[in-house]
Amino acid sequence: MLGLNYLHLQSITHRDLKPENILLVSKDKNCFDVKISDLGFAQEFNREDGETMTLVLGSPLYMAPELVNSKPYNEKVDVWSLGVITYQLLCGKTPFESRNLKRIDYNIKYKAIRFENTEVEHWSTISQDAKDFILACLERNPEKRPSVAELFNMPWITKFYDQQLEKPISHDGEIQQSIHKNMMKFGELNQIQKLVLSLLAGLSASKEELHEM
């Protein structure tokens, strides 16, 4: 969040946030330092003028509804992606996934977010504050979706800083280990599958728009 907030303060939208573009600094399972990478789709915007963007690009599983609907958008598409990534890190899968691209688009636009225990998702150990954070990021109306700066005021974040900022962070909890495991597991996803999904996202752009890239 600190890195993303910095980008937005510099009037830059990443537009392709996903686990592949968040790099672990170390393979040490107790180290959670990360860096944002791959700014190939990044775009500068004018914060004062409320400038919007129109070029549709990104990775399908992490694209905001306004992108799926080919509507003008702003930097809050990154907040949506942050919500998808947070959901994935806490339970091991994305909230809108499907093997069919059209179904992914439908899920992004209409599927309700539910935190239910299943064979692959385990939400009973996740706090309500964390769930509220995800729901705020995954607000489908971009005007109601918080900015990254506003996310710092959410209880899940403020409580972390209140409890951990002034003392060494404990990493022996099951949730921390699960987050690291989920990040590593995504890295093992079939590379062809990830490539196809990424390429399909670009098919909605015109030849002229792709040339501008």
Question: How does this model look, in words?
Answer:
It is globular, with a radius of gyration of 17 Å. The chain has one domain: Transferase(Phosphotransferase), domain 1 (Orthogonal Bundle). The C terminus is likely disordered. It has 10 helices and 4 strands. Helix 3 packs antiparallel against helix 5 and helix 3 crosses helix 8. The strands form 2 sheets. Strands 1-4 form a two-stranded antiparallel ribbon. It has a two-stranded antiparallel sheet with strand order 2-3. The protein has 213 residues and is mostly helical.
Task: Summarize this structure as a short list of keywords or feature phrases.
213 residues; mainly alpha; Transferase(Phosphotransferase), domain 1; 10 helices; 4 strands; 5% strand; disordered C terminus
Quick overview of this protein structure:
With 213 residues, the chain is mostly helical. Helices cover 44% and strands 5% of the residues.
Number of strands: 4
Strand order of the largest sheet: 1-4
Distance between the termini: 26 Å
- Rounded to an integer, what's the Rg over CA atoms? 17 Å
Approximate strand percentage: under 5%
**What's the domain count?**
1
Structural class: mainly alpha
Helix percent reads: 40-55%
